[in-house]
Design brief:
The chain is mostly helical. The chain is 47% helix and 11% strand. The radius of gyration is 19 Å and the shape is elongated. The two termini are 37 Å apart. 14% of the residues are buried.
């Protein structure tokens, strides 16, 4: 255990926990997720995919956006591991990932917007 000493003693108890502070890399990962979520269209697409599995064309219609724009957002959400996809013939379907992070984000969105799931979806 590396006992780091702070330059100034302000009587705070933080010094006991210095070795427990998450790494810079951990915070970078979180920062990357926040950056990913900094786009309202992307958040809306994610929220939609928490409630249904859909193809790009249908998402585009729901969002009133072009398919290339939706595809761009889907690529970013998938890279951030917030959504997954599956291919059925020529069609690719997207849905929210079945992860604790995606479920938490879904709940945070609904709490902050004071909305509820259509159809009363259940949490895992």
């Amino acid at each position: 255990m590396n006992q780091t000493k702070l330059p100034h003693d302000h009587g705070a108890i933080l010094e006991k926990y210095i070795d427990s502070i998450p790494s810079t890399e951990d915070f970078q990962t979180l920062s990357d997720i926040f950056r990913l979520l900094g786009d309202s269209s992307r958040l809306r697409i994610f929220w939609i995919l928490c409630h249904c599995e859909e193809c790009v064309i249908n998402i585009s219609a729901m969002m009133d956006m072009s398919s290339p724009a939706v595809s761009h957002h889907l690529k970013a959400l998938k890279a951030g591991r917030l959504i997954t996809s599956r291919r059925e013939g020529k069609e690719v379907y997207y849905k929210a990932a079945d992860t604790d992070q995606a479920v938490l984000l879904h709940h945070v969105i609904e709490e902050l917007l004071e909305i509820t799931c259509p159809g009363g979806c259940q949490s895992r």
